[in-house]
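Quick one, T. Sequence first:
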Amino acid sequence: MEPNSLTSSSPKQHLTEFQDLESKEGELYLRFYVASNQEFALPATAVREVISAPLDRITPIPNAPYALLGTLNLRGRVIWVADLGYFLGEPNALNTERAEISVIAVEEQEIMVGLAVDRIVGMEWLDVEEVQQINNPDSTANVFVRGEWMLDELTNKSLQLLEQKAIIQSRLWQA
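Structure tokens:
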């Protein structure tokens, strides 16, 4: 599902999508990619909004740390926007030379931040009983990862499930 399709579809299509989402079992997650083309997911309960923001809507802040792209006015509420890949120790920075950036607004205990990602995949139900512990103890991302869900055992491709509370409470916002 493309980011624009989250906001620009017919009411009938929304109803069908809502019914599909309602009839599944497990927990609902938003799937997305960071700049290094690694796939992650956040619990839908933590996601307040998905925004496809033109770069000029994100106001850069002078002398801000590299990971912080700036601030974004979200319906009268100013939120910080950061490159999520930086938090996860990804070697590639988010491409900010494009017309729009996908931003996931997440909230925990009335603190809202924006997480800039490479692209949004869509919503999916995941069986949390199939979530496995991370098998890379040296990864920087482990602080923010709740576990992983195996997508394809033959290629060893997995989906990392993120913990929004750890991201919001990270010291990287204070740097």
